[in-house]
Design the sequence.
């Protein structure tokens, strides 16, 4: 089964609601007529309704960058997957390296969030990846990402895997301008797909999308996407302008 490419913009903590709506309008305009690529925008939480209004029922879809693992409760400052669904989200990003690094999210917390997203009947993009030190200390990084994958997916059923997307984001490539080479990305994605095969069998492994993230730009997207196991991109910096994001969606042209 062919995997539908997914190009997702992670706007991080950028853009006010008005700015976000403007950017969403430019993206919608720019990707009009593109077929065979799923396009996802993940603005800051406070922008979701404004961006959702712009996207309407069109082909570009809405997602969030994080959620709490409980469905509601006394958790000041947090939002639940169910609330994000009610705000129009179809996807939630979980376990981004910035969440792991600055907010202390462990694999166990990531796993709870993955299950919360699936429980709310949304799709999840589960991020993982090694740091520079971890990569430089030898082949251990392969075990590390494969263990992050298994820990994050603990208790997730094969049936639920239809709503799971994995994002391989080597921490050393995020926001640094230092992209993994297509061969490096391809190698990591092959490791992850093999582990998915061990966990869920070949059919699920073959159907699960694995995105690459880390300094994806218009000038490197094509070679990354040419890798057999690279099924899309999770894009930070280049998603903040339609001029750089639209060409990513149109990578095949
Ligand atoms: P970047 O961020 O494209 O700016 O490297 C990617 C990400 O953090 O998802």
Sequence:
């Amino acid at each position: 089964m062919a995997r539908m490419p997914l190009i997702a913009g992670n706007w991080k903590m950028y853009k006010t609601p008005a700015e976000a709506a403007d950017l969403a309008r430019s993206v919608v305009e720019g990707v009009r007529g593109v077929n065979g690529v799923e396009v996802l925008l993940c603005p800051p939480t406070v922008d979701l309704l404004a961006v959702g209004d712009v996207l309407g029922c069109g082909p570009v879809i809405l997602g969030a960058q994080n959620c709490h693992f409980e469905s509601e409760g006394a958790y000041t400052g947090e939002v639940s997957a169910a609330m994000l669904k009610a705000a129009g989200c179809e996807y939630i990003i979980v376990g981004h390296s910035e969440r792991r690094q600055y907010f202390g999210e462990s694999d166990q917390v990531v796993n709870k969030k993955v299950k919360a997203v699936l429980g709310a009947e949304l799709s999840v993009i589960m991020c993982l990846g090694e740091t520079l030190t971890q990569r430089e200390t030898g082949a251990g990084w392969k075990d590390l990402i494969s263990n992050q994958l298994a820990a994050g997916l603990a208790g997730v059923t094969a049936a639920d895997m239809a709503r799971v997307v994995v994002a391989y984001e080597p921490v050393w490539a995020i926001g640094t301008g230092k992209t993994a080479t297509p061969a490096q990305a391809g190698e990591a994605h092959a490791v992850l797909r093999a582990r998915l095969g061990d966990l869920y069998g070949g059919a699920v492994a073959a159907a699960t999308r694995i995105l690459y993230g880390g300094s994806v730009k218009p000038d490197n997207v094509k070679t990354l996407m040419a890798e057999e196991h690279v099924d899309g991109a999770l894009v930070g910096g280049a998603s903040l302008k339609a001029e750089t994001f639209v060409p990513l969606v149109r990578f095949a042209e």
